[in-house]
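Q&A log
Question type: sequence-to-structure
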Amino acid sequence: MTDPDDVSTGCVLGPLRFAGFVPRMRILPRANNVLTLVRGDPYGQVDSVTTWGKNWSFLRRLIGLQAPRDIAIDDEHMELLVLDSRGVLAFPLAAEGAATSLRQLQVPADARRLLLDKKRDQIDVLTPTGIFSYARTASGAASPLGLLRGPRSGLQQAVAFALCSTL
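Response status: OK
Response body:
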């Protein structure tokens, strides 16, 4: 089985060549920017989130992350959410350098993916065996608002999830 956190394969993305790792990407729809999440690339780059502008021009880089796994963008509240080994960290969207997070939410240590549910104003976190939902502004050791796990959930070694809702 493929490890979802294995970033050892390479890819070509536009004019940039990412060799030795696969960045996780999100597109910032309001500003036409692209954010890339990088986990220790072969060029000596530290774990970071980099914002690229038009024609892949460098805009800024957020560093100081610890084993980052996923990112989400809250363009309504102008925040960048980063899932790393410490939990979910919220930064101002324009944060750069070794910025201090606005808040930090403790989530299960085996959390792999992160989604922002704008409709419900919640953060959803995927672990191999469950989905935990928290208030968007939750911090510290906040309890989840909802939880989907157990044998009847059908979640076993989950590696990805998507938000689909008509409610």
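Response note: DSSP finds no helices and 14 strands in the chain.
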